[in-house]
């Protein structure tokens, strides 16, 4: 069994894959608090046991992290509680991608993992990956597996907090698909603004990626991340892949084992 762990700015997102590459379970834990290696280790052991898996069934662990402060205690937990040195998504590992960033080290581990999974699942086509996390990130990949680059904008929750903290009267709201474009209360207006500004941004970026990078081929849009599901009715994406980052970490492990 292969344990995959994605450490994001808001959450630690993990999954367990069997030897055939099938995702058997997934779990989450906040990454906004700094836990000790023992706290992480006990959490991982407990979540496995609660789902019917013995800790000694783990034969490999792979980690991607965009939070350096969390990486060390999670790595130490893997060594102490699973007697396994985890594979860390970092420079020097085979990814199957040709990174076109001027400085490849600047590309977040989550974006690389998403790209690894996407080119494996949807090969030989222009790809646009949209990840609705703390930040909403866009990644553009050519049919030749060239990671061309992308865009980064504040995520829905980050935008909401900016409104709350930067104004005197605007409250925190539930992030949801509004019933109407024009809100008839302060809360409805914020919800509609958050929702449709993101919808408009994704549609505009999709159109520009198609025009500038895809030639006569259609762009294949893949949505992932917690808030991507909000836009399923708007058909923003060709496919919604909630576990894309975990799939990518698993593929990374296979490529480098």
How is this structure best described in words?
α1 packs across α2. A hairpin with a 5-residue loop joins β2 and β3. The chain is built from 6 helices and 11 strands. The strands form 2 sheets. A 6-stranded mixed beta sheet has the order 6-9-8-7-10-11, sandwiched between helices. Strands 3-2-1-4-5 form a 5-stranded mixed beta sheet, sandwiched between helices. The protein is 37% helix and 23% strand. It has 2 domains: 87 residues, 2-Layer Sandwich (Nucleotidyltransferase, domain 5); 150 residues, Nucleotidyltransferase, domain 5 (2-Layer Sandwich). The chain has 257 residues and is α/β, with parallel strands linked by helices.
Layout of strands and helices, then pairs:
Layout: E1 2-7, E2 11-17, E3 23-30, H1 37-50, E4 60-65, H2 68-82, E5 87-88, E6 98-99, H3 109-121, E7 127-132, E8 135-141, E9 146-154, H4 156-166, H5 186-213, E10 220-224, E11 239-240, H6 244-256
Parallel strand pairs: 1-4, 4-5, 6-9, 7-10, 10-11
Antiparallel strand pairs: 1-2, 2-3, 7-8, 8-9
Helix pairs in contact: 1-2, 3-6
